[in-house]
Write a structure and sequence with these properties.
- Helix 1 links the parallel strand 1 and strand 2 (about 25-30).
- It is elongated, with a radius of gyration of 18 Å.
- The longest helix has 19 residues, at about 105-120.
- It has a six-stranded antiparallel β-barrel with strand order 6-7-8-11-10-9. A five-stranded parallel beta sheet has the order 2-1-3-4-5, sandwiched between helices.
- It is built from six helices and twelve strands.
- About 35% of the residues lie in helices and about 35% in strands.
- It is an alpha/beta fold.
Length: about 230
């Protein structure tokens, strides 16, 4: 079974994280203090380490994991509430950011992606269907940011952007490869990586767009190709 270490003092956040991890088949060891988390790292091995930026010494726990044998492939997660803590987390090796305040739906989407990453690292990397085509994000001020879709489902997507995002809610649009269908949706960022890849959960996808997307995904799932490539705009 996959295992995660959770360093967090907030009862609600602990309940949400533990419940979602459990639903995803990940066993959780919970620590209230950085000292206890540090001891747990040296006495056991975890596939993921999640720390809350409000806990004193949380960044030090992520740093410690980077120095210990057996943690080269562990996924490092920060529960972050401020832009400052996000920047600091990436500097100390965090790979995924989950934004606070946490909600069960957003955490479920984010941790599902994390769980898949944990499983791939545990297996040494597994084949999966990916996509690679251009997408436009429009923030709340109407500014357009270019990106590349890395994967997509009927509930969300991973998008690599040309710059860091300063907002967590976006409209986005793209043309699905080999179709004339323009996909438009509203979404929110639920996690991010240091390489400017963002996990987007769809919050508003019309029935027609969802039907088009599901049909397109079904055709891709039936192909032998592992990667869908189109010319980038």
């Amino acid at each position: 079974m996959l295992r995660a270490l959770l360093l967090c003092e907030d009862d609600l956040s602990v309940r949400i994280m533990a419940r979602v991890f459990k639903d995803l088949g990940v066993d959780v060891e919970h620590c209230l203090h950085a000292l206890g988390a540090g001891k747990a790292l040296t006495s056991d091995c975890f596939d993921a380490i999640a720390v809350d930026d409000q806990v004193s010494g949380a960044l030090g726990v992520l740093n410690q994991a980077l120095t210990l044998p057996g943690y080269e492939k562990s996924v490092r997660i920060m529960l972050a509430g401020t832009p400052t803590s996000v920047a600091a987390a990436f500097q100390t090796g965090a790979q995924v950011i989950l934004y606070k305040p946490l909600s069960q739906d957003r955490v479920r989407y984010g941790l599902r992606a994390v769980r898949n990453l944990m499983a791939r690292e545990r297996r040494g990397g597994s084949k999966r269907i990916q996509v690679d085509f251009p997408v436009k994000l429009i923030n709340e001020k109407g500014r357009t940011i270019s990106g590349v879709m890395e994967d997509i489902s009927d509930t969300g997507a991973a998008i690599r952007c040309v710059e860091q995002l300063s907002s967590t809610r976006f409209d986005f649009e793209c043309t699905l490869p080999d179709t004339q269908a323009m996909l438009r949706a509203e979404g929110e960022v639920v996690w991010q990586r240091a390489d400017r890849t963002f996990g987007i959960r769809f919050t508003d996808l019309s029935a027609s767009s969802r039907k088009t997307l599901i049909e397109w995904l079904r055709t891709r799932a039936g192909t032998k190709s592992e990667r869908v490539l189109t010319a980038k705009a």
